[in-house]
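Provenance and format

Records in this collection were gathered into a single text stream. Each protein contributes a sequence line and a token line. The two records reproduced below are adjacent in the stream.
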Amino acid sequence: MKAVLVDTCIWSLALRGKSPRNASIAKELTALIHAEKATIIGPIRQELLSGYSDFEQFNKLKNKLIYFPNEPIIDEDYETAAEFSNRCRNKGIQGSHIDFLICAVAHRLKLSIYTRDKDCSFYSRIIPVLLYSES
């Protein structure tokens, strides 16, 4: 199995881990981590850390995320993200700049995206991105 780009929503749900749904996501993410397949990019790291205004919790999460180096983002990724955004918008599908950047990086690195964001299923009908299927 190739590496998997783990979206913000998966990290967030796994970190909450209380409900059965979140527990299953946490279990899947843990398996990816143990297999050294979980990857992250800077904007996802930023989104995650921005959700913790408590300084102690922020530092705790920051220290955990250190074990996951950022996949590099290159100029081509920004151009591809803009192209993906335009292609989707032309088909009536809106998305965030970050979503399309995630898609662009995953596309370039040939990674699947582990997400529960419903928008990504719409994107995948128009742009060449692979969504990770839980085992």
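Adjacent record:
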Amino acid sequence: MDSKLSYTTAPYTIPRCEGKENCTLTVRIPKFYLSKEEREQVCLRRAVWGTDIYTDDSDPLTAAIHSGWVRGDWGDLVDISMMELNPTADLKESEQQSTLSASPASPMLPPPGMDLHLTLLILPTLQNYTPRVMHGIKSRAWGGDHDGMSYRIEKIAWVDEKSARGEERDGEARRKRLKMITGSRTTGPVVHFGIGKSLSGGKVGIVAA
């Protein structure tokens, strides 16, 4: 069971991506799953295989923490100073909706009230996925029998989804928001392939069960 929470979370995996090498995949992680408690569970679970390039069944948020984009959490019993992490990078007010195309000097704490957009580059299968301790997480190894694809995090963006939706106030926009809300109750993160192309269904999977 999750620390301080009354339910069990499960890792989120991206869709099957065969035939989509060098396409980009954008995954939206709602702010709820960026909380201190959720990030603690992500770090404990370690559902990530590889280093920098990960198997397609690695949890994207775990990969973002392992590769240094996002700050993890390890609970009150862990002395962060012993983990050799750089001081957490501050996110300036003017940068809250900007896209970062390179990992920051030190992992970033999620800004309050913001969702996270991860842009993943789909890559071919590797012969081996090497484990490594990075930013407080030890990734897992995978041998030469992986039957899926790989991905690498290309960029991230902190986005105020609520504010963006508030800009659309006509009837069509309200219907779209209603469809999004009702759909997200069962389907979870929003996923897009490439530029202007959406994966069939528009949303896949759930982050928590």
